[in-house]
Write a structure and sequence with these properties.
mainly alpha; 3 strands; 17 helices; about 300 residues
């Protein structure tokens, strides 16, 4: 991309096209369908897709009925689907079906080790040279091409995906969106007969902005710890994520590819220190997992 991922996402959020993009991607298995569409492998003709779209409730209708006081599993998935659509509108998926299938296979295996294995998990690699990864409520995880190219083993990929899976499991993004939505309800601005649909549009934009910006440091540290455990449970070397963080330490702070990452996450050395403090000698006790360097799929 000519612009940084942050600029692209911010543009999408501010553009009138952003909501339309999210709605257009509000399909069953948003990442799977987006991959098929971008690769030209969709099995449905356009006419059939249009008919199905008319038969099903619109994205706006689904989102307008979300109960922000106590979001259901379906509410969470609907919000995440649209947040992901907004991000994909700013940075499309890498045009490589084998890569996308591989990342989904690894991601779903790691996610199956969590207490939210029943979510319809979707993973994708987006076409951005930035070094970063994003999660959205309901089981949607995106990793940038720039980060993927720095990985040297499947264990490292599992650690990165485990971190993002942990955000979803702990509902880190959803809780921030929920808080913002309930805050909006109490403002005089929203008391002026603003529609539920508009409220949720604002919440979805907040969710995409959270993904593009930052969560609380404690949430990032928690995701590092839980992500490491999930990857180890899946049979991978427990040091996969730590190795990625060590690699990030070697990147110059002025390198544009990590500008967004360093703005949205604690510095890698702080994350490593916290991970070491929390895990103690536990990582050594669960060492012996697989690294699987040769199984890491190379980008075309």
């Amino acid at each position: 991309m000519n612009k940084t991922l942050k600029q692209a996402i911010m543009l999408a959020l501010c553009s009138s096209v952003a909501w339309g993009t999210a709605s257009a991607l509000d399909l069953k298995g948003v990442l799977k369908d987006a991959v098929n569409e971008q690769l030209g492998t969709s099995s449905k003709p356009e006419q059939t897709q249009a008919t199905d779209s008319q038969a099903n409730p619109s994205a706006q209708d689904k989102l307008a009925n979300i109960n922000w006081k106590n979001p259901s599993r379906e509410d969470e998935i609907a919000v995440g689907r649209n947040v992901t659509g907004t991000i994909l509108g700013a940075a499309p998926l890498v045009n490589d079906a084998a890569l996308q299938q591989y990342v989904n296979k690894v991601g779903r295996w790691v996610a199956s080790q969590s207490e939210r294995a029943d979510l319809p998990w979707h993973f994708g690699v987006i076409d951005s040279n930035d070094v970063n990864a994003f999660a959205a409520p309901g089981g949607y995880v995106l990793i940038t091409k720039g980060l993927y190219l720095r990985l040297t083993s499947e264990a490292q990929l599992a650690g990165v995906l485990g971190h993002e899976i942990a955000h979803v499991v702990q509902k880190h993004h959803l809780k921030v969106m929920q808080k913002q939505a309930l805050l909006d309800v109490g403002t005089s601005f929203l008391k002026d007969k603003i529609s539920k649909n508009k409220l949720t549009q604002r919440a979805v934009s907040t969710g995409a902005e959270i993904s593009a910006r930052n969560l609380d440091k404690s949430a990032e540290f928690e995701a590092d710890s839980m992500g490491t455990v999930l990857a180890a449970r899946a049979g991978y070397d427990a040091y996969g994520l730590a190795e990625v963080l060590q690699d990030m330490e070697t990147i110059n702070n002025n390198d544009g590819s990590v500008a967004l990452l360093f703005q949205t996450h604690p510095h890698p050395d702080d994350r490593l220190a916290q991970l070491s403090q929390v895990s103690g000698d536990q990582m050594d006790k669960i060492s012996g997992g697989k690294t699987l360097e040769t199984r890491l799929v190379k980008l075309k």
